[in-house]
Design goal:
This protein has 286 residues and is of the alpha/beta class. It has eleven helices and eleven strands. It starts with 10 loop residues before the first helix and ends with a strand.
Length: 286
């Protein structure tokens, strides 16, 4: 097995070589963060200077560097990521959880705590992927009954693995929400659906296009999933319930205008993320 040449196995020398091999692809700051995460993955404190990697670790590190040179995301290389301070297994069948989706959970948490008082809520997570939203909500609201659906069997396998890892009881079901109907009524419908229109595909970073699942990213239009979920809310969202969805910041007003055409929503509004972008829509049912 090929291994890169490191001047020594001491952490500072290894780090210098790591940065040199990746400097044409990642910024210095990105290299620092990547090396820190890898060092922690090996079980070391990355801020200690007396660390010496063994030969097996240098072989593993060489393989990681090769993957990084091909722009493979580190989460897929290591097989896990973190979301809401929780470890989530990931592979190329699910999206890597994003900070914006952590914001979704935080804003949703605030709305639930404001409007519901420890009652047994029925929550539906549409397009669950790795299960990060459903699992984080179940951790925060253990009394909630959560159904998580996805049209990908491979994604559901990862989501179930993550739920089992965190010892949380969530119902998972394979269902294509665009083409199949829902059978139950829910107090809350939450989703981070595919919201990049196919026409915008050339604007997306190469590493995302190459490695992350297209079905979780792209849709025929920017609004088709929102329109479908708004439509399903007529029969599958309980009275006084609400829909909460992450959205493409560039289509926020269009989706807001669309939501107002559904007469059973008494109030709809856009919410901004920490960067000041239109990022979420919430629709309250009469």
């Amino acid at each position: 097995m090929n291994i890169f040449h490191f001047p020594s196995n001491q952490i500072l020398d290894v780090k210098k070589t790591f940065v040199e091999l990746l400097k044409d692809i990642y910024s210095k700051n990105e290299c620092e963060v990547l090396f820190q995460r890898i060092t922690e993955h090996f079980g070391y404190n990355p801020f200690q200077t007396n660390i010496h990697f063994n030969q097996s670790e240098l072989i593993d590190l060489s393989e990681i560097i090769k993957d990084l040179q091909h722009k493979k995301p580190l989460a897929y290389i290591l097989g896990y990521s973190y979301f809401f301070n929780m470890k989530f297994f990931v592979n190329e069948n699910v999206l890597i959880p994003r900070p914006e989706t952590e914001e979704l959970v935080l804003q949703l948490k605030q709305i639930i705590e404001t409007n519901y008082k420890n009652q047994s809520l029925n929550i539906l997570d549409v397009g669950t992927g790795s299960g990060c939203i459903a699992i984080a909500l179940k951790k925060i609201f253990p009394y909630a009954n959560i159904m998580a659906i996805d049209k990908s069997s491979d994604a559901l396998e990862i989501a179930q693995k993550n739920a089992a890892f965190h010892q949380l009881s969530i119902n998972f079901k394979k269902l294509d929400v665009l083409n199949e109907s829902l059978n139950e009524t829910y107090d809350i419908i939450v989703s981070n659906p595919p919201y990049i229109p196919e026409s915008d595909k050339n604007t997306i970073d190469e590493s995302v296009i190459k490695f992350e699942p297209s079905m979780a990213l792209f849709s025929n239009t920017a609004i088709e999933f929102y329109e479908r979920i708004f439509y399903l809310s007529k029969n599958n969202l309980a009275s006084k319930g609400f829909v909460f969805m992450e959205l493409n910041q560039y289509y926020g007003k269009e989706i807001l205008d669309l939501s107002k055409k559904f007469e059973y929503f008494q109030k709809t509004e856009l919410l901004k993320d920490w960067s000041g972008n239109d990022r979420f829509i919430v629709c309250y049912k009469i």
